[in-house]
Amino acid sequence: MVFRKTFTICSIVICLSCTAGAAGSDVKRIPQLDRDKLPGRQVKVAAICIGFGGEREAKLKEAIDHLHTAGNNGVDIACLPEEFAGTKAEPIPGSTTDAVAALAKQYNMYVVCPIREQAGDRQYNTAVLIDRKGNVAGYYRKVFVFWGEGLNLSTEGVKVFETDFGRISILTCFDLNYPELWQKCDDLDVDIVFWPSAYGGGSPLNAFAILYHYYVVPVGAGNIIDITGKTHHDIQKPRKKQFVATLDLDRAFAHHDFNRDKVEKMLKEHDGEIVVERNLSQEDLAPWWLFKAAKPGVSARKLLEEYNIETLRQYQHRSREQINRAREEGKRI
Question: Are 101 and 26 in the same domain?
Fold first, then answer.
């Protein structure tokens, strides 16, 4: 009896993959980014906004079909919505993560796969990170579970996941309302926060991107948010409900404080290699530069380090630590 049940689940997964594969085969295959030949540190992300819950088999088929599209478009990491395949709990690994993992391996891409997790006698709203080889690389359990979900609460908090393109964190839906979680992502020095959700989120997401200088990939409405706090300018839509953008994780802010002479020297000595993308203006009174590399093989962040110019995040973190230490020691600044 156990064998027959296992065979049935495997058959469903295989059939879903084959069916979706046929649907995705019409999409022109686009190679993944060759980051070594590009300026900065670029990564292609996909927000697959197919909604929360629903009938499991239909939603899993839809998700797999979208993952074929993402893979055929050279995506490095795709994110599915909160509990996208329904609310029946399952273990990790399980039938849903196994089905998604097959696509991650096929297209050499990471996938954030949110499920309802059965962990012993406990159940969690969990986002599973699957790596390029189809292996479970980690998971994030929702910290602020919404009223009525009937789920256990995470005691593990916010996590950071190291990928081959940068550092990411995951927060889920109702977590949006708790700034301490978003500050923790900043403390962990992440490049991107993925936010699988059952709704769109709105302006608080833009505010956190501005405040903490990381990209936010919302998977409710697909409004991928730049580190400037604005919707990313080149979001592509390879199909309805899927949003794709290429993000340069090497872009960096630096404060005007203590840096003017060093920045002037760097820009003069590396003219054409690094550019100021944005600076203090009437539109934005923040006294910050935003730098990006302009030549393949060049890193803006490495040049900043070479000229002893802290990024804005480094400056803020160091200032917080040193000022708080002085406070504890009764010293003046």
Answer: yes
- Judge whether 154 and 201 are in contact, CB under 8 Å: no
Residues 42, 38, 67: CA angle, nearest 5 degrees:
45
Q: In terms of domains, do 15 and 139 share one?
A: yes
Question: If DSSP codes are grouped into helix, strand and coil, which group holds residue 84?
Answer: coil
Peptide bond between residue 31 and the one before it cis (omega within 30 degrees of 0): no
pLDDT reported for residue 177: 98
Instruction: Tally the domains of the chain.
Output: 2
Q: Does residue 36 have a pLDDT over 70?
A: yes
How far apart are alpha carbons 24 and 72 in whole angstroms?
8
What is the pTM (predicted TM-score) of this model?
0.91
Label residue 24 by pLDDT band (50, 70, 90). very low
Handedness of CA 195, 196, 201, 202 (dihedral sign): positive
| Token pair 């380090």: residue | 305
Q: How far is CA 273 from the centre of its chain?
A: 27
Domain final residue, candidates 225, 248, 271: 248
Final residue in a domain of this structure, among 222, 248, 274: 248
Contact between 278 and 286 (Cβ < 8 Å): no
